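Revision sheet: structure tokens.
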Amino acid sequence: MATEYEQPAAISLQEIVPQQKFTLPTGLTFFPGNNKIMYLLQQDGMIWRLVDDGGEIIVNPFVDLREYYNVVYLPEGLGGCNECGLYSMVFHPNFNQNGYIYISFTTDGANGRPLQTHIKRFRSSDNGVSLAQDNSGKLEETVIFEIQQPANLHNNGQIRFGPDGYLYIGMGDGGYSLDAQNVHNPFGSILRVTDEGEPAPGNLVQGGLPELYAIGLRNPWFWSFDRLTGDLWAGDVGHAKIEEVNRIFNGGNYGWPCFEGNATYINCGSSGPFENPVWDYGRVDGSSVTGGYVYRGRVIESLYGTYLFSDFLSGIIWGLREIPGESGYERVQLIASGKAVSAFAEDNDGELYILDYTEGGIYRLVPTINDSTKKPLPVRLSETGCMNIRDVTQPDSKLLPYSINEPFWSDGADKERFISLPEKSQIEVDDQGDFHFPVGTILLKNFRLQGKLIETRLLLNQENSGWSGYSYAWNDDVTEAILLETSEDREFGGQIWHYPSRAECRQCHTSAAGFSLGLEIAQLNRISPNTGQNQLDWFVERNLFSSELGPHQLALKLPGSKDLSASLGERARAFLHSNCSYCHRPGGTSQSNMDLRFGTELIFTNTCGVEPIQGDLGIASALLLAPGVADRSLIWQRISANNENKMPPLARNHVDMESAELIRDWINNMDFCRTIAGPLDGKYALHKDENTILGRTNSLPALVNTDSENKVEWQIKPAIENFYHISLVGDDDLFLHYENLKLSIGPIRPEWWSAHWELIAEEDYFLVRNRWYGHYLRVVNDSVGMAPLSDEGQYKWRIVLNPNHGG
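Predicted:
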């Protein structure tokens, strides 16, 4: 049924490189004057050169910046940096004469190293096939602009040459909102400089940096010039409530953080004057605007002169156009793309493209392709084919019921869940127990509030738009449910119930979270109240899985937060997994880099002892999670809030008081942030036996007696999920590492796998495995070294905490 329906769209998306998916694409640039050559930028630092060879796209490396600079993209783990990396590339207007190419990227930004933004000019001597190198093998470069960022947040550095020939640079506020009103730094602004990096003449922001063209922006993620008029358009990502689209004028102040959109945000100490956005929108439509272009192509005639933009979370692409005879604009929805639109691109003819950040695709915008076999989703739920024709409140028999271990909080509503797969199709299950569904899958959920059926939600995996959510509101007599076009709030027995919009559904049902959210091995691994057997066995009997589940998958099980047989920590983590981790996980939609999945060891969640980067709610010494002090822990504060600071932020009008108290008790009962070995700030010895430990001789690890002058103490701190750094106490830069098959102690880049160690607990000892080679720390003939696991030598290490540790 999911493939029978398709919502109307004004445009279509045509994938141009279907044979290849790119990793985290952030930009696409066309070669000047030639649409057959383009350059795809990946956030991790890689740039690909794509050539259209008679309709076949040939993909070759252009440059990997990681070979020359410490370009870091580290989305998860303690000290991660999910806004670091490669942002933008532009050709000099006179490229054909000088060969100049400008690139915006960041270096460092992880493991305690300050994040640096760079705008550098490079040169191509072979007409854009590669970048020129000097005699030492380094890239020829000229520094145009550099600055240290205050935090790993809002570090956008998009660059473009304007119609005046000057270079424009977009800068986010760096995570410190008041900097956007400070004319003595470049954050939260558009800069305008010459092609040599000097301040361009005629910038009108007064009293501060001469490079400033406009200020008062939060995170102008994507912006562009209208190729006909020269107007500068920008999408500015909002904070808690509102996204905005701006036309940027020389000398303009766009209000952040005094205003968010057209709404007052804080008293920021500035009186303006401020420029109002051309358009703003709230969370009903999305929560991370991606600016686009004014369309000046010829393929979609009806959109000529329309400004196209999207939202990274909802995937909707809209058009803004002036209302004839009036001074305002109107917005029209063009397509619900189902993509995480990270950037737009414009070719030499004015045709537009989008990049899908999560799936890695490049799509050309083309006129809509009407499929006569598709029809819009029916307005009446009874006409969808999902419901029983004899009892419209119950799903059709083709939808199978299921339940989960830890339900998402829905303002106290009771829920019934159902699933249907297309005929002869199956579910793929990955090693983490996440499900991957075929096109045509239907998920249905009934909501009952105070015993009354009030809503049915459909989540359909559709052919062109991917997963899409639809809300049906039941009438008072519960005889029919009607499809809602947007969100609504209605009152039931003194309680406000929120019906989410389709855009709101997309903000939670993301690819990083597996779209379906509750359907995973750990949630389904339970005895069904309907059948009395384990649901996984029930699924297997119906041949719903494409392969046999392995022992590791079958061992995955999420406890319920109200299951008193589970530990306090397990119950709390189960709640966070179900209610928070769909955003807070690697690749998730949150701007923080927390990972609240149940299977992530607490120390790797990037919460314990970690300072917030999105404000402290006015709480002194606030941490994301402060062991022993829930009042200082923003995780608890947000879960227990019912205002603009609440989490989850969507579709919740009432606090889950029981779960909030659970989280409070869990935090208050913590003593310290703990690794697998013990306290995070502990000092440790690695014991071969009672009298022999791992010490060092010069830069080499060595076995020494516990009273030897060569004995050392180690600190064990998280590097990235499941891996630790082992470094010397008193010198954080001296790491135990295994590089080029040599075990050493010394300085090394912390993100390198040779400095990452997995501690595998076995009874009262550990196996210590290196990430890079997979070899284990072992002792043979009183000599310490590395080797694959074998019967030769001793691999067991006891990790002993210094008894004088004060943690």
